[in-house]
Amino acid sequence: MNTPAHTLQAQLRIPAAHPAFAGHFPGNPIVPGVVLLDHVLQAIQAHRNCRLLSIASVKFLQPVLPDDVVDLEIRISPVAAAEHRAHFRGLRAATAVIEGVFTLQDNEAAS
């Protein structure tokens, strides 16, 4: 496997008007973990034609509030011909709020 790893950077912000906040939690809204994970995957898919195979690990380290800006650092490394690991970390004002690892498959290989 001679394909080098590469790094992506992205930024996410979940607006206060997002429908998830109606039930998570009224009066004290916190961004649901699934919304954060979806935005991490969208950031990856904006640069790579792939699908999520699995979430190898994830840690939610601090709550993310509506309109918080989270800077994403994503390092994608090959593990097989069309399979990759995406190690990601989200920082809010230099404080880690989420970290984890996705296993991805290139869409061309999924056919």
UniProtKB/TrEMBL annotation:
Protein name: 3-hydroxymyristoyl/3-hydroxydecanoyl-(Acyl carrier protein) dehydratase
GO molecular function: lyase activity
Superkingdom of origin organism: Bacteria
SUPFAM superfamilies per UniProt: Thioesterase/thiol ester dehydrase-isomerase
Domain ApeI dehydratase-like, chain residue ranges per copy: 4-90
